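Quick one:
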Amino acid sequence: MNICLLFWILLLAAECGSHSLEFLSTGRVQPGSGLHFEQVTEFDGVVISHCDSGTQQEHFKPVLESHNLPGTCTAAFYDVFDALKAISKFINHTRNVQRRRGCIMSDERLESAFDNWAVNGEGFIQFDAGAQKWKALSPSAEIIKDSWNSYETRNHFFGQFINEECPEMIHQIKLREAEKRTDLRVFANPVDLTRALLKCHVTSTDKSVRSVSLTEDGATKANWITVTGPLPSGDGSVILILTAEVPLIHPNIYGCVVQTEDRTITVMWDGNTLDGREILYATVNWPLWKILTIVSFSCVFLLICIIAVVLKHNKKIKRRMKKRIPESMTETEKENLRMSLQETITRPKD
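Output:
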């Protein structure tokens, strides 16, 4: 498994001529305050702008160096507002609608253009950019599909935006060069008293990263359990998580190694979990109900033992008393002797 290659490919995606621009809108009805709208714009997975129904003005992020993006989100606001109003007539309990539209360019060619809608988090309807027609993604969207397909002028503008305007915006967007940064964290989650899942968490903006490996006693550990990522984090960096199961014998021999073009970064595991607890303490950090159950059983067992000892001691006393009382004595004499023996046996020794 060439983990370093996957990591490097994602970091270099922008330099290879592939770019994406997405406008992610959400509209929801809030009791007492009407419609709330917000939109996030992402370029190559990096958030470059935010807009909401308060001012309907785009707030561009510092990472954006140059662009020709719209300064407001007013048009998107009314699109979502009209959609929410129309869909609510046919679908009860419509709480929110989501819209994802944009395009992907590859080697200066339009690879895909999309305009998809969801209702209450479920896929609802999508736009065919070529035919400029809507396609229902659920039975409840059929009526909306027929209605929206009748708005030919609006559909023309929707198609023009994702087919022509979106690619032009991509050509004009330039992000500031991110400072080379690689952060490593090594921690573990206990499996039981003898094993733990060791994780190597890497966040990097360095395009020269060549390899990421989890090591044991200085040698590369080969038996990987899971590899999560590479995933874009939204700020221009990429996240990769390697996980392996390790025995809890010598925690300090495990570590994470990242190899870049000009340096090697190594972080050893300090034996702690993500929240800073020592792993051996975490494995025995039982819930309160378990502790109370163990204490209760221990108290009951101790009480049973005490009762058993007392009963055994009483039996011995009775046997000793019976041996010392002659059969020829009267009942009164036996009783007096029995009391005398009891006092002798129970009287503490000087």
